Amino acid sequence: MPSDSRSDSSSAPAADAPHLQPLQGSGLVLGTIALSLATFMNVLDTSIANVSIPSIAGDMGVSASQGTWVITSFGVANAIAVPLTGFLTQRFGAVRTFLASILLFTLFSLLCGQAPNLQVLILFRVLQGASAGPMIPLSQTLLLSSYRRERAGMALAMWSMTTLVAPIAGPLLGGWITDNISWPWIFYINVPVGIVCTLATLAIYRRRETPTRKLPIDWTGLALLVVWVGSLQILLDKGQELGWFGSTTIVALAVAAVVGLVLFLIWELNDEHPVVDLKLFALPNFTLGTIMLSLAYGMYFGSLVLLPLWLQEFVGYTATQAGGVLAWVGMFALLFMPLVGRYSSRVDTRWVTSFSFLVFALVFWMRSRFTIGDTYWDYSLPTIVQGVATATFFIPLLAIILGGLPAWRVASAAGLSNFARITAGSFGASIYTTLWSDRAILHHAQLAQFIHPGRAATDGALALLRSGGLSSQQALGALNRAIDVQASTISVDEMFRLSAWLFLAMVVLVWLVRPSQAGSAAGAEAAGAH
Predict the structure, then answer these.
(1) Which CATH fold topology does 11-217+273-442+486-529 show?
(2) CB 315: neighbour CB atoms within 10 A?
């Protein structure tokens, strides 16, 4: 495996760090709960708004597609902030940075709930996502430092279960809050949790601060990162609304994204202290693992946004019912996750990952057969099966990405792969909703060709509607709505069918990976030593 002789600033803190004794007794329990709650709160906010988008959009007088900015703005800001974790930790210390992240996240959650319009809400979601960036990697780092090294695997399994439960609980909790209280409370609930996490973390970890030193930050690289990621995300979100490349705004965004990316790559490969260590992509397993993680998570998260939108807009489900459909993923996921964490090191990760992708393909194929006449359990069954795929997804891919890396590169690799995953999730949400809408417009036009006066089926349908008390204009509107429903259903089925084929294709990528002798345990120990 290729190596990089260039010095990496991330190695110094690990080398200089004093040896911290593992926590014991009530301190270990309280510390684990505090860190897990912080992670739960963070990950919850990536999905809790999914089923609330129609309500938020309706209250603020915007379309549902514009409302998805509430989701994607958080994801992009979060992705951009993640690579800064290493610098902030070295400059201010892991504990101080973690506490600041929680406090700012809590403050901006409060402000999100008070936003008077969509523009202000998106602004606070951006600030909320940016402040959340260091929270997940630092919660993992602090958790690993709290346990004995031989129990690092168990600590990671517990942490992974937290990140799994939150996306499951998000749609269900968000739906219930939206239906029974009001959507601002999906943000307000973070406030008491954030206060509890802050007080508990301060009590347990204030004397476990990591060494600090002043390092230059790569402002140029960071600015270029913001330019190309932000431009590409806005292009994806606004493309349909502005007419894609018929709009000068979209063309300008495309140019900014391409030029920004090229300049970012050139700068980061030559800067002495890059904000993102791109030389990790010289390692085949890291590259393949990150590609698979990003593609799979992009499709996974895109479906978490698309499915509840379709269920609410065209099937007639409430936010709570739509959230309930998604929540069933937890049944098998929580059952199998501890087993995967315990025994995955004994099995070739390529087999486990292949199994996960095949189950995901089955899940999306089952969803590609949805109709508006299906029952609640017809919609929920694929989600139940998806729990098996989810439980076997994250841990083996983490082993592929981090396995075999020296300790001084693990933090950079984890940050970069997290950046790719989070960015892919935001892009996936935009791509899914945009393609779904575009294909629905196409299918509407195709179906409408068969609806015209003088055709027996058309005249019969209009007569039936008028006999129910509708005027001619109302009957035409009802018929047009029926075409909308069918067009959107055909489109959503196409999106799920495409996802099934992509998951099957990724199985080929899995077998290009070279199995690492280090395995996930080594990666965990390395992360814990950092």
Answers:
(1) Growth Hormone; Chain: A; (1.20.1250)
(2) 20
